[in-house]
Amino acid sequence: MEAAFAVTIGVLTASGLFLLLRARTFTVVLGLTLMSYAVTLFLLSMGRLATARPPVIMDGARYADPVPQALVLTAIVISFAMTAFAIVLSLRSLGLSGTDHVDGVERP
Questions:
Q1: 24 — phi, psi (to 5°)?
Q2: Where is the chain membrane-spanning (predicted)?
Q3: Burial 74-105 (b: 16+ CB within 10 A, else e)
Q4: Given its phi and psi angles, is residue 57 left (phi above 0), alpha (psi -120 to 50 degrees) or beta?
Q5: How far is CA 36 from CA 7, 21, 57, 83, 106, in A?
Q6: How high is the pLDDT of residue 102?
Q7: Chain centre distance of CA 30
Q8: What is the mean pLDDT of residues 24-43?
């Protein structure tokens, strides 16, 4: 389970980094989105990667750490706002320069 989770995070990170290095604004926004998914999964894995277990750890009635879940929720909200801002910024750049190239200049 942990190996598949780690491979998934690695594939999302590598795909996001590849798309971030492209020359079009849509692929950059898509790369940012994939990177934010990878970060969200990484933050989720900081908790417990166990299924069918109670949230209360029975040794002395300790509770599971709620910080990773709070970090994941915060990361989801921030990534949604970041994606919306990047889309609006790329649309504004497209309107001003007439191209969706990251530099604003088409190269043959």
A1: -110, 145
A2: 6-21, 28-50, 70-91
A3: ebeeebeeeeeebeeebeebeeeeeebeeeee
A4: beta
A5: 16, 16, 30, 9, 28
A6: 83
A7: 10
A8: 92
Q: CA geometry: angle at 51 spanning 80 and 1, to 5°?
A: 80
Q: Which two tokens stand for residue 26?
A: 């849509």
Global pTM? 0.78
Residues 10, 23, 96, CA angle at the centre, nearest 5°?
Answer: 130
All domains of the chain, ordered by start, with CATH?
Answer: 2-50+64-97 (1.10.287)
Q: Which residue has the tokens 């969706």?
A: 100
pLDDT per position as a tens digit, 86-96: 999 999 988 88
Helix residue ranges, H only, 1-108: 2-20, 25-45, 67-97
**Model confidence pLDDT, tens digit, residues 47-87:** 766 666 666 666 665 666 777 788 889 989 999 999 999 99
Query: What average pLDDT does the structure give for the chain?
Result: 84
